[in-house]
Design brief:
single chain; alpha/beta; Aspartate Aminotransferase, domain 1; seven-stranded mixed beta sheet; 36% helix; pyridoxal phosphate binding; Aminotrans_V_dom; EC 2.8.1.7
Length: 433
């Protein structure tokens, strides 16, 4: 079997062989500070299999050219690869190719949406764009658990339009307060933006209920799928969300590429955000007409090689099977929790009983700053994330400024978790707490 091809999936419930899959990820054979690397930072950036590295290199060495522009053979080959990648990545989330806009990542995708709505609010765009316009007193609703990328664009949009920004609160266990949500999402609500899976808590949010509340009042729904796309089977059209974003580097893919999914009628109504070459039909010195989506939102040179690499990444994930990946990571999360709750001085964030979750835990170490805890773990070869994870308001909600986050992926093993737990148990004794 090729080292760049995941083993054949016998059924959706068969356990995956993470030890075998690790052979596909060259970096996992590295040592750190004299220890075997235990990589538990995939929520920030996942590692790439050989299939992804090979796909980008193959493009660069055999078909490197600008897309949608040239008439020569390399340009045609590059364009075919680029658009095939779009269809592959769109299919991964249940969408059609024309429903997927290439972005540099989820942050750009969310800014694209917010600025496009801002443009509609000042009268730019087609007649249908007027339906997206915000006026003073309209409300944008997000949640108290969002990554800054799904908070700051809405703050800016509210400031530009006079809209009011409101937030669905989190309960003490990290779950969203849906009773409050039903009161907050009302007649003035025009946008409801939320994360599918919290990058701090690992909890899978009740998006069906949030979407239903938004639909009740005709509000647009925008979902951050960064922490769900690599870990859960995802069908965005079936889920019913209007717009959703994800990032390639969190799902075994390259940096600098991501996707914005949109329902066709929503994308059609959205005015462009970035303007320039490649997204126009006609241009005069005083006026321009723009292409239909998705090209309307793809000004300038696109991330061609990274898009091709991302297509290879989603083929890899599909080959292993998202059901199997989710089951495997759920097992790792349960093993991690069972060990962490036995260690004195460890406080888990989002330890909600019965909540569906991905393989991610954030925690506070009593008496030890998160950065010191992270350095202690790194000295033992364990890579975790420390800080507020671009979710400062959520950390404030729990009365802390930073936490340690351990996040798993399909290539992590039970042994990785055990090495991590052994290292965590040594943090407070080392610092004399």
């Amino acid at each position: 079997m090729s080292s760049s091809t995941p083993q054949t999936v016998a059924s959706a419930v068969d356990p995956l062989d993470a030890t075998r899959l690790r052979e596909d990820f060259p970096i996992l054979s590295e040592e750190v500070n004299g220890h075997r690397l235990v990589y538990l930072d995939s929520a920030a950036t996942s590692q790439r299999p050989l299939a992804v590295l090979d796909a980008e290199r193959e493009f660069l060495t055999h078909a490197n050219a600008a897309v949608h522009r040239g008439a020569h053979t390399l340009a045609a080959e590059a364009t075919d690869l680029f658009e095939d990648a779009r269809a592959t990545v769109a299919g991964f989330v249940g969408a059609e190719a024309e429903q997927l806009v290439w972005t540099s990542g989820a942050t750009m995708g969310l800014n694209l949406v917010a600025y496009s709505i801002g443009n509609a609010s000042v009268g730019r765009g087609a007649p249908a764009s007027a339906g997206l316009a915000l006026r003073p007193g309209d409300e944008i609703v997000t949640t108290a658990i969002e990554h800054h990328a799904n908070l700051l664009p809405w703050q800016e949009l509210a400031a530009r339009t006079g809209a009011v920004l409101r937030h669905i609160p989190a309960r003490d266990d990290g779950t969203l307060d849906l009773d409050a949500a039903s009161e907050i999402i009302g007649e003035r609500t025009r946008i409801v933006a939320f994360t599918h899976v919290s990058n701090v808590l690992g909890i899978v949010n009740p998006v069906d209920e949030l979407i239903a509340l938004a639909r009740r009042v005709g509000a647009l729904t925008v979902m951050d799928a960064c922490q769900s796309a690599p870990h859960l089977p995802l069908d965005l059209p079936a889920l019913g969300v209007d717009l959703a974003v994800f990032s390639g580097h969190k799902m075994l893919g390259p940096y600098g590429v991501g996707g914005l999914y949109g329902r066709a009628e929503v994308l059609e109504a959205m005015p462009p955000f970035l303007t320039g070459g490649s997204m126009i039909t006609t241009v005069t010195l005083d006026h321009a007409e723009y292409l239909a989506p998705p090209q309307r939102f793809e000004a300038g040179t696109q991330p061609i090689g990274p898009a091709i690499g991302l297509a290879a990444a989603v083929r890899y994930l599909d080959g292993v099977g998202l059901d199997r990946i989710h089951a495997h990571e759920t097992m790792l999360a349960e093993r991690m929790r069972a060990g962490l709750v036995e260690i004195p001085g460890i406080r888990l964030l989002g330890d909600a009983e019965g909540a569906e979750r991905v393989g991610l835990w954030s925690f506070d170490v009593d008496g030890v700053h998160a950065h010191d805890a992270g350095q202690f773990l790194d000295a033992r070869g364990v890579a975790v994330r420390v800080g507020h994870h671009c979710a400062a308001p959520l950390h404030s909600r729990f009365g802390i400024t930073a936490s340690v986050r351990a996040s798993t992926a399909l290539y992590n093993t039970a042994d990785d978790v055990d090495v991590f737990l052994d290292a965590v148990s040594g943090i407070r004794p080392y610092f004399g707490v």
